[in-house]
């Protein structure tokens, strides 16, 4: 099972950087595609 918490933390960081209100974790997991989730996780690892 993949842990998406690091990707979510990166997503929240980028939202704050651009002054955008992030969605909560539940909707992040529910509404993003697998490709989007993987991209955030990959970026968070970098």
Question: What is shown here, in short?
Answer:
This protein is mainly alpha-helical and 46 residues long. It has three helices and no strands. The chain has one domain (2-45).
Structural account:
The protein has 46 residues and is an all-alpha fold. It is built from three helices and no strands. It has one domain. Helix 1 crosses helix 3. The protein starts with a helix and ends with a helix. It comes from Ureibacillus manganicus DSM 26584. This is Transcriptional regulator.
How do the helices and strands line up, and which of them pair or pack?
Blueprint: H1 5-18, H2 25-31, H3 34-45
Helix pairs in contact: 1-3
Protein name: Transcriptional regulator
Organism: Ureibacillus manganicus DSM 26584
Tell me the number of helical segments per DSSP (H or I, 4 or more residues long). 3
Mean pLDDT: 92
H-E string: HHH
Count of beta strands: 0
Uncertain spans = none
Helix content: over 70%
Largest sheet: none
Overall number of domains: 1
- The rounded distance between the terminal residues' Cα atoms is 20 Å
Oligomer category: single chain
Question: Any idea what the shape is?
Answer: globular
**What portion of residues belong to β-strands?**
under 5%
């Amino acid at each position: 099972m993949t842990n998406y918490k690091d990707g979510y933390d990166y997503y929240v960081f980028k939202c704050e950087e651009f002054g955008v209100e992030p969605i909560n974790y539940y909707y992040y997991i529910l509404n993003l595609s697998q490709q989007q989730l993987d991209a955030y996780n990959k970026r968070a690892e970098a």
